[in-house]
């Protein structure tokens, strides 16, 4: 019994740590939590695949406020840890958008207001000494999130293209995991949510790039 319990704890901890480390690297995340079904891992892995994995990712792409919750079926413990079926719920909060906009050169004291009824992200701040307002509309195009600027002004004068481009680039930096299709973009008062679905999805590519030197999680 002691050997059996010890083996179960070792195998479960090995898979949790190995898969979490690979995803943390590829998604450039601040924290990743991996959990499995309560069925003993030796039984779960009898077919060579882990039946179900629940993964919570925080701070994706190094952005506080960008998170994802993944439910995966039929996961290979070796190689890229491919999942037969993946369903991922992603979220970027208003605070996460602000954290990205804070990196835009030439814009100071930014505030971010989400307007779900208009599907608009309103960003205000100061450029040099003048107040700036930029409105962005998020949408899905070519399997990625794009944001389109509108109603940009400084006292009624158009905002410089370079500044608008920087703001758009900061807000639109939302990765689509390799092998998935993004859908159902929705906006609430506190964030933007997205759904990703796919088959044969490599867990090691949940971010913007593959994890270099990803660990083979197989115990065999």
Tell me about this structure.
This protein has 220 residues and is an alpha+beta fold. Helix content is 22%, strand content 43%. The protein is built from four helices and ten strands, in the order αβαβββαββββαββ. It has helices at residues 2-26, 41-44, 94-101, 161-171; strands at 31-36, 50-58, 66-75, 82-93, 108-115, 120-127, 130-141, 144-153, 180-187, 191-202. The strands form two sheets. It has a six-stranded antiparallel sheet with strand order 1-2-3-4-10-9. The chain is elongated.
How would you summarize this macromolecular structure in one to three sentences?
With 220 residues, this protein is α+β, with helices and mostly antiparallel strands. The chain has four helices and ten strands.
Features:
220 residues, alpha+beta, four-stranded antiparallel beta sheet, 4 helices, 10 strands, six-stranded antiparallel beta sheet
The secondary structure category is alpha+beta
What gyration radius follows from the Cα positions, in whole Å? 21 Å
Number of helices: 4
Classify the oligomer. single chain
Which regions have little confidence, pLDDT < 50, spanning 5+ residues?
A: 208-212
If you average the pLDDT, what whole number results? 83
| Total DSSP E strands | 10
Instruction: Report the sheet-strand fraction.
Output: 35-45%
| Largest sheet, strands/sense/barrel | 6 strands, antiparallel
For the biggest β-sheet, the strand order reads 1-2-3-4-10-9
Helix content: 10-25%
- Series of H and E elements: HEHEEEHEEEEHEE
Distance between the termini: 22 Å
Give the overall shape, derived from the CA principal axes: elongated
């Amino acid at each position: 019994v002691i050997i059996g319990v010890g083996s179960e704890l070792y195998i479960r901890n090995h898979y949790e740590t190995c898969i979490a480390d690979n995803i943390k690297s590829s998604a450039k995340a601040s924290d990743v939590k991996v959990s499995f079904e309560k069925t003993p891992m030796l039984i779960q892995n009898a077919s060579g695949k882990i039946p179900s994995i629940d993964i919570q990712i925080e701070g994706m792409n190094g952005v506080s406020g960008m998170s994802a919750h993944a439910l995966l079926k039929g996961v290979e413990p070796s190689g890229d840890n491919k999942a037969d079926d993946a369903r991922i719920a992603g979220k970027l909060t208003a605070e996460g958008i602000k954290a990205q906009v804070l990196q835009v050169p030439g814009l100071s004291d930014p505030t971010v207001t989400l307007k779900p009824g208009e599907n608009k992200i309103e960003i205000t701040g100061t450029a040099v000494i003048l107040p700036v307002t930029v409105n962005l509309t998020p949408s899905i195009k070519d399997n990625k999130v794009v944001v389109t600027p509108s109603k940009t002004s400084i006292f009624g004068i158009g905002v410089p293209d370079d500044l608008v481009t920087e703001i758009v680039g900061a807000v639109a930096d939302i990765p689509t995991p390799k092998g998935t299709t993004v859908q159902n973009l929705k906006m609430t008062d506190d964030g933007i949510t997205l759904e990703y679905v796919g088959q044969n999805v490599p867990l090691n590519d949940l971010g913007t790039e593959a994890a270099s030197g990803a660990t083979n999680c197989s115990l065999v």
